Amino acid sequence: MLLAVQLYVPFRPPFIIPDHAITLLQYVLPPNSVVYTGCVGDDDFSEQLKRANKKEGLAEAYLVKKGEQTGACAVVITGHQRSLVTTLAAAEKFDKDHLSAPHVAPLVDAAKFFYVEGYFLTHGLDSALEVAKKASDSGKVFVLNLSAPFIAQYFKLQLEQVFPYCDFVIGNESEAAAWASAAGRPNKDDIPTIARSIATLPKSNPSRPRTVVITQGPDSTVVVTAEDAGKPKIFPVDRLEESQIVDTNGAGDAFAGGFLGALVSGKSVDEAVLVGHKLAGMGVQLVGPQYPWPKVPVL
């Protein structure tokens, strides 16, 4: 089982979906392999989200705040460009005590993988640290997505507190460069060097070397593991024709979902990167998160 801490509900008419990465993670895995938690309101959006979860075979353990609105994100697409505006609403009211609630604590204990978005660190650092420390102490896998450049720019201290517990860090080239700049690292345009810097940061559980995965859109993906930090691996991406690209929104999340789903399934890091590439490539050719059903085999 995998436990994911949710930030907000991506919302774009006519779609109500869980977090894109979590949706794609569940797409890769058997039904009810994934449970995720976050804070929602007691409104129509949360009910729609629960129905969408059920359709995807995705389990949830929400903290429901009465009288609050569920977070939402509006997306405007113009050609290959996109703009997102988010209202966090109830999402930023997550309470760490929810993790020890009678119906949630057993899920935390049973999970073998944990996934947290960098966005969550803007308001839920205590909760993220509790999950991260439990994962580290019990030898389970903790994965952090850098999520956006502004996380490294404005929440560097929060990242520094979580990094020691991270077994995997996933991000894109802009997020990696933002971290390098915030951390005062030279060569902020040298992605392999940045990935190496993150991979070799101090780690609370050294028995599992940290792996850093940095995507670069249609360009190659860089993977560095602390165990072999001097030799980054480069994975080319099968480029699509411009005419094939419909919607780039969520491509990074699709990669993260595919990558993590493959890891949970027992695949190697190299194999997981290829699964991530496949799902991201599928996603940018679709309008919204409408992946084929029945499921397309990707493992």
From TrEMBL:
Please name the source species: Russula earlei
The source's superkingdom equals: Eukaryota
The protein depicted here goes by the name Adenosine kinase
- The question of whether Transferase is a record keyword is answered with yes
Keyword set, alphabetical order = Kinase, Transferase
Say if the entry is tagged with keyword Kinase. yes
